[in-house]
Design goal:
alpha/beta, six-stranded mixed beta sheet, four-stranded antiparallel beta sheet, binds adenosine-5'-diphosphate, binds magnesium ion
Length: 269
């Protein structure tokens, strides 16, 4: 069973972004294509540090591409992406990914649809590997942090378990805990519950709702419209490489402005 959500007064604000809320992330004129296929056509996007953007849209509309670009895994051909007013990524016709500031990349964590835990490592080892080996954080500190995060997500008993001994929902919660080890200021979630059995979806969504309560900035791609409506501060509908419509979840879901949004929602709701 999923752990009961923590009552708000018990929550220590671990993840509050101290930076001026209004200048968190800004995409200007961003365009990206794979060959002739345009997946981001002149994107403009502003995100505040306490925003939870939920990206919805048909398969192939470029949702994952947007997240991979923000993670620095793929380049853009045109435009700029600023993070807390600093240049982070700029468009470059030729380069795979032109990251101006790699220190920003470390402030972003990502979780994918298919859990990417190392199968030969225990839960604890999965969490501390990169912080200790890559980021040179002391092992003692990393272990303390890992324990605290796992306890927070109801996984303290799984510290020494291996991924093969976990349910799908537990694996995704571990993947989220692992992404939080380096204290990111932005979390990206790409359909993290799509591969889960229905009874495990809630436990993972509860973890994300917990992060939302702690004011973690998040960009979430999901096909679960009920969850989207619950967690989003803003919903963005993408289709054919364009941002078709964005707005408050109640607005977008109950009275969408664009025909394409309405047609999409009629299909999925
Ligand atoms: P979504 O996540 O909304 O389903 P994606 O961002 O994964 O969309 O993909 C958008 C389009 O770009 C799709 O048509 C997909 O086939 C194509 N695409 C994605 N990645 C690549 C790639 N590395 N090379 C070529 N085409 C790609
Ligand atoms: Mg996708």
């Amino acid at each position: 069973l999923a752990a009961a959500p923590t009552r708000p007064q018990d929550i220590r604000p671990l993840f509050i972004n101290e930076f001026n809320k209004g200048d968190f992330i800004q995409l200007d004129n961003v365009s990206k294509a794979y060959g002739d296929l345009v997946v981001m056509d002149n994107f403009h996007l502003n995100m505040k540090s306490d925003d939870r953007l939920v990206i919805i849209g048909p398969s192939g509309s470029g949702k994952s591409s947007l997240l991979r670009v923000l993670m620095g895994l793929e380049g853009i051909q045109r435009g700029t992406i600023n993070f807390q007013k600093q240049h982070y990524i700029v468009g470059d016709k030729n380069k795979q990914a032109k990251i101006v500031d790699h220190t920003i990349q470390k402030k972003i964590g990502m979780v994918f649809q298919h859990y990417t835990l190392f199968p030969h490592l225990s839960v604890l080892q999965n969490l501390i590997l990169s912080p200790v080996k890559v980021h040179k954080i002391s092992k003692t500190i990393a272990i303390d942090k890992a324990r605290a995060l796992l306890a927070r997500f109801g996984l303290e008993s799984k510290l020494h378990a291996y991924p093969s001994q976990l349910s799908g929902g537990q694996k995704q919660r571990v993947a989220i805990a692992r992404a939080l080890m380096l204290e990111p200021q932005l979390m990206l979630f790409d359909e993290v519950t799509s591969a889960l059995d229905p009874e495990m979806v809630t436990e993972v969504q509860n973890v994300m709702l917990q992060l939302a309560e702690q004011k973690m900035a998040m960009i979430i791609v999901t096909h679960d419209m009920h969850f989207a409506r619950n967690i989003a501060s803003r919903v963005i509908f993408c289709a054919n490489g364009k941002i078709v419509e964005q707005g408050h979840p109640e607005k977008v879901f109950t009275s969408p402005k664009e025909t394409r949004t309405r047609e999409f929602l009629e299909k999925v709701l």
